[in-house]
Amino acid sequence: MSQATVAIRPARGFVLPRFLTSEHPFPWLAPITAVLLIFGVYPLLYALWLSLHKRNPATRISIFDPEYNWLKILTDDRMWGAIGHTYLYTIVAIAIELVLGLLIALLLDTDRRGYGVLRALMTLPLVVPPAVTGMMFLLMMDGSFGVLSRGLYATGLLSPSTPILANSSTALTGILIADVWQWTPFMVLIMMAGLRALPKDPYEAAAIDGATPVQAFFKLTLPMLSKIIAIAVLIRGVDLFRTFDYVKVMTEGGPGTATETLTAYAGTIYFKNADFPYASTIALMTLILVVVTSSLFIKIFKVRF
Fold this sequence. Notes:
- The chain has helices spanning 26-51, 68-74, 77-108, 115-121, 130-140, 147-155, 171-196, 201-208, 213-241, 245-250, 262-271, 276-301, and strands at residues 53-56, 61-64.
- The termini are far apart.
- The chain is mainly alpha-helical and 305 residues long.
- It has twelve helices and two strands; from the N terminus they run H-E-E-H-H-H-H-H-H-H-H-H-H-H.
- Helix 3 packs antiparallel against helix 9 (213-241).
- The protein has a single domain, classed as MetI-like fold.
- Strands 1-2 form a two-stranded antiparallel sheet.
- Helix content is 65%, strand content 3%.
């Protein structure tokens, strides 16, 4: 007895477009490539084009003059002062955050009960917007009612006649305090990841040989963490070089120009003076300094990614 052959049709459902099922990487790289071109390459080229023009503030007309802004930078004392403030701010902030981050990471590098909560709490300052952090410390350092200022007055470390942010000798320190509070946890997280990745065998051998914890730290921990430290310093240094929020909110570059960094100076030229070509030139100079400094750091410390 013959059996009837039944044709089974595949159920029709949602079918992905062919280019999404291809193994070629272009469909997956296209969106991020478009984002980089729109928000990265185009602004850079536009800033370069602006830097080749001279703007007349009276007529608000830009004239093509390739040398004007670049020669102006060389004779701009305020520009060189901003470069000095930027490097000073970056170096001091990195040094403090690195030392504090490593020390706190060593304290939290344990599996004891409750330390996981402490490690989680360390990330809270990182989620606060820098502008909000700047406003918080601006209020805390207020000469009349700020809790930090009044505490320093009570201990005699600061005179009420010289408020922190209103004194040219202490204003940059006030901004640094806000930066250190917010970004030291970033260093802590990186250092803890590095500490957790270190092998245990060298420490066991050092303990058998009678090495003290201090000797183990300087002879084993620091050398093995050197690459992690270098990468952390590089990432944090690039970020510090373009600091704008704290300066803008807390001092606006003052008193005078005592806390004016490169990005703050560029912001002043752009928003207050409306000299877009010169502001773009300062921004490009900042980029050049970042690239040169980072390249030297990578070459000297032999950083590998």
